[in-house]
Amino acid sequence: MMKELMRAAEVAKIALAEDDLKRLQTRFTAYLQWLEPLLEADCAACEPLLFGHGAPIVMREDKAEQCEMKDMGYSAANFEGGYYVVPPIIE
Amino acid sequence: MEYETVIGLEVHVELLTESKLFCSCPNRFAADPNVNTCPGCLGFPGILPQLNGAAVKKALTAALALNCEIALYSYFDRKNYFYPDLSKGYQISQFHVPIGSNGYLDSEDDQGQLKRVRIGRVHMEEDAGKLVHSPAGDTSLVDYNRAGVPLIEVVTEPDLRSSGEARRYLEKLKSILQYARVSDCKMEEGSLRCDANISLRPAGSNTLGSKTELKNMNSFKAVEKSLEHEIKRQRVILKSGKEVISQTLRWEENSQETIVMRGKLQAHDYRCFVDPELAPIQLTAEEVEEARQNLPEMAEERAARFVKAYNLPEYDAAILTVSRSLADYFEACMADYDNPKTAGNWIMGELTAKLNSAGIEADCCSFTPLFMTELLKMIDEGLISGKLAKEILDQSFTGGKSPRQIVKEENLTQISDHGELEKIIRQMIEDHPDSVENYRGGKTKALGFLVGQVMKETKGKANPQLVNELLLKALK
Amino acid sequence: MDSTTISAGRLADQVNKGELKARELIEKVLQNAEEQDSRLNIFCSTAGEVALDQASAVDKKIEAGICLPLAGVPFTIKDDFIYKALPTTLGSLMFKSFYPPYNAAAVEKLIAAGAVVVGKTNIDNMGVGATTLDSPQGPTLNPREPGRIAGSAGAAALAAGICSLALESDSGGALRQGASHCGVFGFLPSAGLVSRHGLALHSGSFCRVGLSAAYPEDLPVALNVISGYDPRDPATAACREVKARREKLDDLSNIAVGYLETLPGLASGLHRNLYQDTLDKIAALGVKKVEVRLTHLSEALRAYQVIAAAEASSTLLRYDGIRYGEAIEADNLEMLYCKTRKATFNGEALNRSIFGTYFLSKGGYDRYYRQALKVWTLVRLELEAAFDQCDLLLLPAVRTEPLPVSGEPDFIDLYEDNLYTVPASMTGNPALCLPAGELGGAPVGVQLVGRLFEDAFLLSAAVKIAPALASAQQELDGGGN
Fold it and tell me: Domain tally for chain A?
């Protein structure tokens, strides 16, 4: 279980210290145990419900609208010259 | 041991809509970064995706034009992964149920025979933004103008057997999608992107070999060359008894070689699941049938129509309809000029040469159909010679002035006045008695020389047929 | 004047008639809010000048002869809604000065109707939870029993007499449970009725906008204001489809209320007795009682947790520090992501980000997520079958007293608290929590669930039923009615 947990933390990109991981592992084990009744539920005859509310999608008209974007950048901690700035990425 | 090449292509195509797929930001090029963005495509909290109906129509049209089975009921999934150009941390795509599947496109193999390439899926998804490296190289810069632009992804089965087949498939795909008005498919501008999967296997084998993925090709030629390069590389490896490592390679146009891509492409677990914020698409059979009936005329149909309506040879019609913009150009000329063969020749010849060297398509050039018909009419009226017309076209194409304007400004009108020409001819006959004697002595080449002299004297403006005629008369 | 000694409706009435100036009212409201907040830890931010300006604007409109349905009514906004004049903290220190420049639809509509913002109320980290124990500023205290949590800071504001309406969100039961703990009315409208534009939701399937109030008759007016088609939330297209279902209820004796004979999971016999007493009081009004059976409650709860975790693990991926939020020092991209997200999440939001990732991964997808989707079908069928036999369903709202403030509850116990609230969350049905009495010195409510889009019917039934239920009602009535 520890391996799955570490992998999930890696994929979710959340830095966890040793004791965080230990705590989560205890939780995880208890959680999966608590979930047992779900696995045992007899729903072989059921289709998975994909959408809580069955109505099909209502689509939008294809009209372009310009948003006033100059207000958006300032909440980014790193915004320069019109770009969002991140540490360098090696391709 | 003979090896067979197995190629599959994944093509992403930007749809020609006014706005993005899930928000109303403009779907168009912007020079400045982050100007066509809003809280939605920037991944701010609290904004729900609003599906663009026109994008769905275009995706449906594309799927029909590629002979796909249409999923009346389809929905969107989230493909989850981290990358700075992906503003929500997931891409909204159609993983489980694509709008189109089991389609095909007819192309040609290396022997010119009909080759049907199966298309496994056509699905809708949103584009990501763009990453740029800062000049200093110490940071990367993100521009989300492209984030959320509607795309369709077209995936072939591994049916292609050579780099040439791959290139022809792409050309045909472009033609179809352009004719369908789904996309302008300009690879150089990024509205069409192609990744290739390629493997080799012993001839006659049914199992697939270990494949590599090729990325970063920016033209159909580059796709062909990169595949050629990779085929050679894999063949060398296999012949030496080793195994080809399955990896992603980046094509470097400058050095014409592939390098292994690091980092980004480790096996992602995308954890695809249904996006709960988007209700499913439910198309009716009637809607699909209507879209099928309303499919714009495809290249073959148009060529057939050109043959019938304009009495063009099949060969000419085929060339004129390869690209929709060229076919549109031709028909625009036909609205103003009534010699299809002449117009067709000029378009297939001079114009196409100019377009190719400028790297643009017929819908983008400043030498408009009206300029073309203007030019052709001047030739018909005898105002200019064919040779002169070519020069005028060249000047107009680059400078932007109309042919009549150029002729006027540079006083290029062809001299067709008999009196004027006869005067010059008499002069030339006087100046070159030897040539006259030679001609009268049976050396017909001397006539050409004299015609040339008249042309030179008139700085090329004399009507050459008329000069010929009058000279023959004068030499009797 | 204490704004909650009379209903929002009567308050608006007085303002509309010119008997009361909104500005004077709001001045007093803000003062009260400040005093109570220092005691109860209700607010992340208070509106101050913004509120006074809004109140003045209302007064001007009244003077110009305009009538506003919620004129001068003070309301709170849960801090997972975006309102550009105040920060949206999302329950995280990483967003302490986050001002997205747009307004939630529900906020826009309430302000346009004349209501005045008092402040943004405390939430658990990323709005995931029903206790506020995971809040960076600590939990909100229960005005009725300050040694215990309120569960919902909006409900606390109502119970403390600070405001007349609370704009709330609910995915697993937070709104309803908070209302129960504080002795107020907590209403979760049908899915698709109220636009979620501007709600920083974590689960697209379950998060909904709702309202709490001290008086049940205020809910239909407020619902009318915030519901309706909004193209920014395509799910509200449902509003255009909804035929006039049964509207207001005239006669209670024509309807049937469904009840459960067995009540698993309740903390004590006292809770069971309260449920039974409530049922008896409702029956005494002439309502027919029909026993219904919900046999999949515990599977439903677990399915809800898995799906909610899966969705949260994906919806919360956008919090990567690149486009908004506080700056984090990082040499490389990986570090930027991991440090930012570690600083952003804690508590249940952290649990879901990690466990949800597992449920969607290759190892967990079929076993947990797909299985949960199948159980979801079961839950829907079961609730539909129940509503074949009754018009309203009576369920407990909570299974235990509100938690002590200093407690460190077991996370599984917190999941179990949602046992009776998740079914309506999963099916989209409307649900209302009404005060039903007291246990251990703290209020306890019960839940009435209605059929999809029969919100008006549910609310009018509640208005008739409420007086019979609560002694809690009398406490709020104070002096002048």
Answer: 1
The closest of C73, C75, C74, C101 to C87, measured between CA atoms, is: C101
d(CA B64, CA B61) in angstroms, rounded, equals 5
| Residue-range definition of the domain harbouring residue A19 | 1-41
Distance from C-alpha of B252 to C-alpha of B241, rounded to nearest angstrom = 27
Question: What per-residue confidence (pLDDT) applies to C183?
Answer: 96
Residue C112 makes CB contacts below 8 A (sequence gap 6+) with: none
Tell me which chain C residues have a C-beta less than 8 angstroms from the C-beta of A5. Answer: 354, 358
Record: contact B269-C361, CB cut-off 8 A: yes
User: Does the pLDDT of residue A47 top 60, yes or no?
Assistant: yes
B179's tokens? 């004719």
With CA atoms as reference, the chain C residue closest to B78 would be C314
Whether B117 and B197 share a structural domain: yes
C318, B45 contact by CB (below 8 A): yes
Q: Which of C196, C234, C365 sits opposite B279 (nearest CB)?
A: C234
Cβ distance C233 to B46 less than 8 Å, yes or no, reads no
Query: Which residues constitute the domain of residue B257?
Result: 3-286
Reported confidence tier of residue C481, pLDDT bands at 50, 70, 90: very low
CA-CA distance, B123 to B151, in Å (whole number)?
Answer: 8
Q: Are B236 and B302 members of one domain? A: no
- Which among A57, A79, A80, A86 is the top mutation candidate for probing chain B, defined by the most B β-carbons within 10 Å of its own β-carbon? A57
Shortest Cα distance, chain C CAs vs residue B10, angstroms? 24
Q: What is the pLDDT of residues C333-377, one digit of tens each?
A: 999 999 999 999 999 999 999 999 999 999 999 999 999 999 999
* Residues B430 and B451 reside in one and the same domain: yes
Percentage of chain C lying above the pLDDT 90 cut: 89
Instruction: Kindly state whether residue B410 falls inside one of the protein's structural domains.
Output: no
Q: Considering the domain boundaries, does residue B291 fall inside one?
A: no
Task: Supply the mean pLDDT for chain C.
Answer: 93
Which pLDDT score is estimated for C471? 52
Tell me whether B246 touches chain A (CB under 8 Å): no
**Inter-chain touch B56–A59, beta carbons under 8 Å:** yes
Task: State pLDDT tens for residues B318-374.
Answer: 999 988 899 999 999 999 999 999 999 999 999 999 998 888 889 888 899 999 999
Per-domain residue ranges for chain C? 8-254+387-477
Phi and psi dihedrals of B279, rounded to 5? Answer: -70, 160
> Residue B193 region, left (φ>0) first, then alpha (ψ -120 to 50), else beta?
beta
CA–CA distance, C202 with C129 (Å, rounded to integer) = 11
- b/e burial code for range B136-175 (CB count within 10 A of at least 16 → b): eeebbbbbbbbbbbbbbbbbbebbbebbebbbbbbbbbbb
Q: Are residues B399 and B424 in the same domain?
A: no
- Using the Cβ of C246 and the Cβ atoms of chain A, whether some distance falls under 8 Å is answered with no
pLDDT, tens only, C128-155 = 999 999 999 999 999 999 899 999 999 9
Q: Number of CB pairs < 8 Å for B and C?
A: 84
**CATH superfamily of the C8-254+387-477 domain:** Amidase signature (AS) domain (3.90.1300.10)
CB contact under 8 A, B47 and C197: yes
Number of domains in chain B: 3
Question: Residue B428 pLDDT more than 70?
Answer: yes
Distance from CA of B333 to the nearest CA of C (A): 45
User: Do residues B228 and B313 share a domain?
Assistant: no
Question: 266-295 in B: which are within 8 Å (CB) of A?
Answer: 269, 271, 274, 276, 278-282
d(CA C149, CA B230): 66
Residues B198 and B231 occupy one common structural domain: yes
Q: Is the ipTM of this complex over 0.90?
A: yes
Contacts of A13 in chain B (CB under 8 A): 82
Touching subunits of B (3+ CB pairs, under 8 Å) are A, C
Domain assignment present for residue B425? The answer is yes
A53, A65, A69 ranked by CB distance to B24: nearest: A65
